[in-house]
Amino acid sequence: xxxxxxxxxxxxxxxxxxxxxxxxxxxxxxxxxxxxxxxxxxxxxxxxxxxxxxxxxxxxxxxxxxxxxxxxxxxxxxxxxxxxxxxxxxxxxxxxxxxxxxxxxxxxxxxxxxxxxxxxxxxxxxxxxxxxxxxxxxxxxxxxxxxxxxxxxxxxxxxxxxxxxxxxxxxxxxxxxxxxxxxxxxxxxxxxxxxxxxxxxxxxxxxxxxxxxxxxxxxxxxxxxxxxxxxxxxxxxxxxxxxxxxxxxxxxxxxxxxxxxxxxxxxxxxxxxxxxxxxxxxxxxxxxxxxxxxxxxxxxxxxxxxxxxxxxxxxxxxxxxxxxxxxxxxxxxxxxxxxxxxxxxxxxxxxxxxx
Length: 355
Fold this sequence. Notes:
three-stranded mixed β-sheet; 14 strands; aldehyde dehydrogenase (NAD+) activity; Rossmann fold; 2 domains; seven-stranded parallel β-sheet; Epimerase_deHydtase; NAD-dependent epimerase/dehydratase domain-containing protein; NAD(P)-bd_dom_sf; alpha/beta; NAD(P)-dependent_oxidoreduct
């Protein structure tokens, strides 16, 4: 039986919101469970300590530190929200969970956070509908893609099988809304467009419209909590090779979003016109937004044909629709003005010269 859960990236947008929801839930499944929050700085330790959780300041990329954190605190489950693009980190954590399993004799679990846009043609995935009930792990291996997210997905499953750790993979789409954590309140993508538009006094969009999967942060955090509850209750749910979950509530039509951003910024006097211009080049878009140039088309124009099945079978019922989202674009702009603490550094490990 799981007793101790470690959340990585607990000061981040997703991790902080998941931690907040876990603390707020009245589910009997979490009764007696101790939550541990992994953070990077002393400031974050102080911010999260008031929540009444066990806060650990640590470098999760260090093997000795990761192993000590899992074994010393008797961690049975890791909810990993810190990174989807560095395979070394989940490998270390899964290895530590494998050691914990050997010591305790109990099953251990790893919840991984991935990215849904890799299942689009722009990212190298074959055309046609893709469901999270499809044999995604086998297909990822067949494609032999060099995309860091795909390589990390494969590494997570292979390492979990090697160490007899059960894992699930939450494929995260475009996320919006204000987070409920104690530190970072904003997502990456939409705030980046707003920030850049304000800085350069002009709103840009790509020459091709995209409509990628999307989800509100509250609905996404709820999915994490549902998965944690199902695991704690030892329910028979898809895991490891079949444990993929598309966290998709609806689609995000980029051109309509950019129109909404332009209107909201113009109404505040932050841009001189409510018109949206086409990016002069993908290279300029990558430079301004701080996104990797190699993946900028997939990030800015992909729609994909992803269909979520597994998450809904768990009983997940997202409350936010596409219509409700588009009506809230003004709130997205205001949230950046209220809570922005600068651009994320999650892409710097891929292309440090581009950020």
